[in-house]
Amino acid sequence: MHFDLTDLRLFVAVSELGSMAEAARLHHISVSALHERMKILESRAGVPLLERTARGSKPTRAGLMVAGHARAVLLQAERLDGAVEAWKQRESGLIKLRANSNAITSFLPDVLASFLARHPDVIVDLEEDTSDEIATAVRSGEADIGIAAENAQLDGIETIPILSDRLVFIAPAGHPLAQRSAVTFTDLLDESFITLDTRSAISAHLKKHAHRLGRELTIRIRVRSFGSVCRMVAAGAGVSIVPASVIPAETLEKGAKVIAISDDWAQRDLVICLPRDRPVSNLVRRLADAVASPQENRLAAWRAGQARPHAASSART
């Protein structure tokens, strides 16, 4: 049995308005044409759907049932239209990407530069966010793809590991802990920190672990980027905890020391986040492949490894 969507839309209008004339006016169709379409609809249904009265038209009991199902069908059709339009947008070259500050500060600029060079018609709408917010955006469809910390709330998310990273302690050369090969988070609780703003995932991560030890972190300076954090530390303004992969060479050249943090939770791997409950376009998959590619991540691996030899050398001095 075949029902035309336009017929169903007109039938719902007649049922709700109680008048063929009003329904015809609403949908810009003549009353005679609407009457003919309702006759065809009733013929297909095989039962009377409308009862004509002195005051207009009202649905029969069968008509009430059909109207309820018709509303559901029309709503589903609207959702289908929206899904197709969203798919066309994704395939047309727009990718909505969310990434945390770690990814944006380390490997992502180089990966995107290479990807966009190979796909000149693609537009990447990149937003920086916390890892939990990134996962939420991917789940809701606000983002097509995300890059977040593995310890975020990733329920309902397909994840692809891309970078093994670790939080490290950075301090000026003359700091009392600068000659240590490793420290625990407990060793650092009396320090005055330079951190990112309160919305950053790492700030929340450190605050959570301090609370588990019954302590509050002392924050000396808040800045907006890891680069600023590292410059402040190198200048002697304080200490910080950052991912090893974000420490620029100039920070080490200025004498800042990188010390390993031995706590298990200092391991902070990054993952690609993709929706698990809806299809992913070929274009988004190609970006995910580029981000996950060892060749694309060679610079990230170099940067992540850059900090670790200094931590080892400090153990020897």
From TrEMBL:
Keywords: DNA-binding, Transcription, Transcription regulation. GO terms for molecular function: DNA binding; DNA-binding transcription factor activity. Residues 3-60 form the HTH lysR-type domain. SUPFAM superfamilies: Periplasmic binding protein-like II (SSF53850), Winged helix' DNA-binding domain (SSF46785). GO terms for cellular component: cytosol. Gene3D superfamilies: 3.40.190.290, Winged helix-like DNA-binding domain superfamily/Winged helix DNA-binding domain (1.10.10.10). It holds the Pfam family LysR_substrate. CDD domains: PBP2_LTTR_like_1. It comes from the Bacteria. Belongs to the LysR transcriptional regulatory family. This is DNA-binding transcriptional regulator, LysR family. It comes from Afifella marina DSM 2698.
